[in-house]
Every structure is written in structure tokens, then in C-alpha cells.
Amino acid sequence: MTTYLINKKTVFFNISSYLKSLVLLMKPRVMSLVIFTCAVGLLTAPNSISLNNSLISIFFVTMGAGAAGALNMWYEADLDKLMTRTCLRPIPTGKINKKHALIFGVVLSVVSIYGLYYFSNLLSAFLLFVTIAFYLFVYTIWLKRKTPQNIVIGGASGALPPVIGWTIATNSLTIEPITFFLIIFYWTPSHFWALSLYKAEDYLKAKIPMLPITNGIEETKKKIFVYSLFMLPVIILPYIIGFTGEIFLISTLLLTFYYNYICYDLYKFKKNKFELNKAKKVFGYSILYLFIIFVLFLVDSLI
């Protein structure tokens, strides 16, 4: 009887551990950003849909993001085991079989796209398909190992969830959701290049051509600052087209000016060198910065 109970507990523990690893395979931190930005796109749209349809649709978009994450980890398992930032992921640690990860990612992709089509509309399902395909084939397979522009171009996939949220509600594409896309698209390079400055050794081990490795520290710092400046026109655009009001404009401009300042502070440090704390400050603030901008979109729509 004791042996039976021990075996039962072991089986339960193994199943629980496996399911937890499947969740980690889906990149839950990325999924949380997808849920939030998709919800903002949906809630700021001029049309409204039922709460049930909203939640179900966002669930399938989140599932699609998880599918992209799983397929990314499947393809990059050889790189992940080389980097301290990723070596504890489910496949490198042996918690998930690589073949299982592929099957899981493909099944999630099919279910999420079809589910979004069934409960929402064809346009939203198509954009979700583009998001997954772009992240896997364009960013992961084609760009990441070949060019330091991987983050710049690949950022398009991460910029689509709020657009999908908008199309879930409206079944149409207009200029308003394009502002969501542009904000995330131009935010992505400075965010990831700040991280790549102090994780350069990891990328070097994995032979990933991130900007600090291919172009050097000075060029990376310069481009971080330049891309932070690009945020100014894209932050103003929602106001120019009448999508947001003065509160959004003033608040986001103040946030952006501070972002410009800390990126410049990182840039003006000694040539071909960087200060670790300043790079971490840019990376950390960039996350908060994007979050607050999308919160302000919601606040503005309520006002």
C-alpha cells in the first residue's frame, strides 16, 4: 500500500512537472505582454463585443503567442543550452523532448488560429497566423543567426497583438491600430540592444550576430539612443490623427523625454565602453515605459 501511494505521488509529481515545463515553453512573460497589449487594442476600439467573446478571443491570441514561443525554443534548443540566460529552459534541461516541443507548438498554432477564426473573424485569425509564421520563419529561422538587424525586423511579430485586439472588435484595419504597431516596433530595438550590451558574452558563445558583437559597443549605444528618439514622432502620431487627447500626449512625451535622457546618458559614457548599471536601467525602464504607454491608451479612451 505504501509503495502504491509513493508511486502515485511520483506519477502526479512527474505530470505536474511536465505540465509546468510546457507552460514555460510558451514563454509566459511574453504571453503576459501579449494579453495586456491585445486587451488594450480590443478595449480602445470603437466597437464593443461581448465579454465572453472578448475573453475567448484573447485566450486564443495568447495561445498563439505561446505556440510561437514553443516553436522558437524548439528551433533554438542548440543555442539556448550555450547561454546563461536560456540554459535552464525546458529543452536544454531535458524536461521537454525536442520532438514533443515541436508537436506542442504546431498543435497550439493550429488550434489558436482556427479558434480565433471561429469565435472572432478571418482577419484576426490571419493576423495571428502572420504573427506566428513571422516569428518562427522570418525572425527565428532566417534573421536571428544571420544579421544584427534581427531585432529590428523581427520586432514586427511582437508589435501585432494590439492590432489583433483591435480587429477582434472591429473586423477592420484602420490607422489607429497602426499606431500601436509602430510604438512597439520602434521600442523593441533599444529595449533588446540594452540587454545585449551586458549579455554580449552569451550571444558570442551562441554565435548570434547581435549588434554589440558585429558593430561594437559604441555603435550599439548610438543606435539605442537614436531609436529612443524615434519614439518621439510615433508617440505624437496617435494625437495627430485624433486617436488620443492632450493627457495622453503630455504624459507619454514626458515618459519619452526621460527615456531619451537615460539612453543618451548610456551613450555618452566612455567611448567603446558602457556602464552596467546604466544599460540595466535602460532595459528595466523600457519595460515600464511601454507598459505605462498602453495603460495611458486605456485611460485616454475612458476619458
Secondary structure elements and pairings:
Elements lengths: L1 H24 L2 H16 L7 H25 L1 H4 L17 H22 L2 H22 L6 H9 L2 H10 L4 H24 L1 H6 L5 H4 L1 H25 L5 H22 L8 H27 L1
List its salient traits.
0% strand, mainly alpha, flat, Tetracycline Repressor, domain 2, 79% helix, 2 domains, 303 residues
Give your account of this protein's structure.
With 303 residues, the protein is mostly helical. It folds into 2 domains: 19-171, UbiA prenyltransferase (Tetracycline Repressor, domain 2, Orthogonal Bundle), CATH 1.10.357; 174-303. It contains 14 helices and no strands. The chain has helices spanning 2-25, 28-43, 51-75, 77-80, 98-119, 122-143, 150-158, 161-170, 175-198, 200-205, 211-214, 216-240, 246-267, 276-302. Helix 3 packs parallel to helix 6. The chain is flat, with a radius of gyration of 21 Å. The model has no long low-confidence stretch (mean pLDDT 93).
Concise account of the structure shown:
With 303 residues, the chain is mainly alpha-helical.
Number of domains: 2
Give the N-to-C terminal Cα separation: 64 Å
Pick out the low-confidence regions. none
Order of helices and strands: HHHHHHHHHHHHHH
Q: Into which percent range does the helicity of residues fall? A: over 70%
Main structural class: mainly alpha
CATH architectural designation of the largest domain:
Orthogonal Bundle
Give the number of helices.
14
Amount of beta strand: under 5%
CATH superfamily of the largest domain: UbiA prenyltransferase
CATH topology tier name of the largest domain: Tetracycline Repressor, domain 2
E-strand count: 0
- What Rg is obtained from the alpha carbons, in whole angstroms? 21 Å
Shape: flat
Mean pLDDT: 93
CATH class of the largest domain: Mainly Alpha
